[in-house]
Amino acid sequence: MPSAGPGRRTLLALAGAGLATPALAQGKFPDRPIRLIVPWPPGGSADAQLRSMAEIAGRSLGQNVVVENRSGASGTMGAMHLATQARPDGYTISQMHLSIIRRPFIVRTPPWDPVNDFTHIIGLCGWMFGIAVKADGPIKSWADYLAYARANPGRLTYATSGIATTNHLAMEEIAAREKIDIVHVPYRASNESAVAVASGEVMSVADSSAWAPLVEGGQLRLICVWTPERSKRFPDAPTLKELGYDMVVTSPYGLSGPKGMDPGVVRVLHDALKAALFDPANERVREQFDMPLEYYDTAAYRDFVARRAQYEKAMAERLNLRID
User: Fold this and answer.
1) Cα separations (Å) of 20 from 27, 83, 131, 291?
2) What residue range is the signal peptide (predicted)?
3) Could you report the per-residue pLDDT of 103-156, keeping only the tens digit for each?
C-alpha cells in the first residue's frame, strides 16, 4: 500500500484536530448568551457572588452570561435541569453545592450520579455560616442558647435554607452532641430565614451570612460562626471550635454543566470564570458576605466532588439520613 504523501498527512492531521474539539471546530464558543442557573431566590450571598461573576465573565467571553433564579428543593433545581434537560453545549451551567452531591444518598430513588452525570468546571468559594437570634430576645450568647433549649425542650426553633442542607445537618449534629430537642424550620433561602428571625416567626437562624445586614443593623445578634477563625467583620462571635466543637463548616461550591461537555468548551468557561472569580469586583462581593475562597481548577474540582460524594455517602449511611 503506498504511503500517504505530505498533502494527505496534512489532511489527516487537520481531521484529527477537528475531532479533538468538535464544538470549537464548528465555530467560536460562545456565539450566543450563556445561561447560569442560580438555585436560590435573588438577594442571597451565592446569588450576589454568582451574579458578579456572570457580569465579569460575560465581558471576556463576548456574550452575556444571563442569571436565572430557580429556587426550591433545597437548592437542587439547577442540578435537576442539568441532569434531565440541558444540552451539553456549554450554554447552560449551574451552581454545584454539597446538597446536590449529598441528595442521591438520602432519597429512595437517586436523581443523579453527582460525579458522572455532570461536567464539573470550576470550584469557587464557600459560605460563612453562623447562628443568629433576635437582638432583643432572651438569648444573648451560645451558653444562653443551650440553656434555653434544655429548659424548653421542643420550643427552640431554628431556620435554614432547606432540609438536608449542610447547615441543617450541622445543627442536627450539634443537637445530638448536646442532647437537646430543637425544631428545624426550613425556608427557601438564607435571606428568607434571616428575615423570619427578625420578624419573630422563628427564634434563630443557622445559615450563611445573609443575616449579616440584619446583625449590623441591630435586628439580629450573632452568637457563633462556623469558620476556622473568627470573622474580621464580626470579631465578637466565637467559632464552633472555640465553643468546644471540632467543626468547621464552609460548604464549598462551584459551577458545573451537563454530562458530556466538550473539553475545549470547558476550558474556555473555566478560564473566563477563574478570571472573574479573582477580579477585584468579585473579591469585594465575597468580602461583603465573608465568603472564603475555595478555588479548584477543572480536574481538581472533579476530584473534590468525587471525594465529597464518598464522604456524603458514608455520612448518610452512618446517620441513616432519609428525606423521602
Assistant:
1) 14, 24, 50, 37
2) 1-25
3) 999 999 999 999 999 999 999 999 999 999 999 999 999 999 999 999 999 999
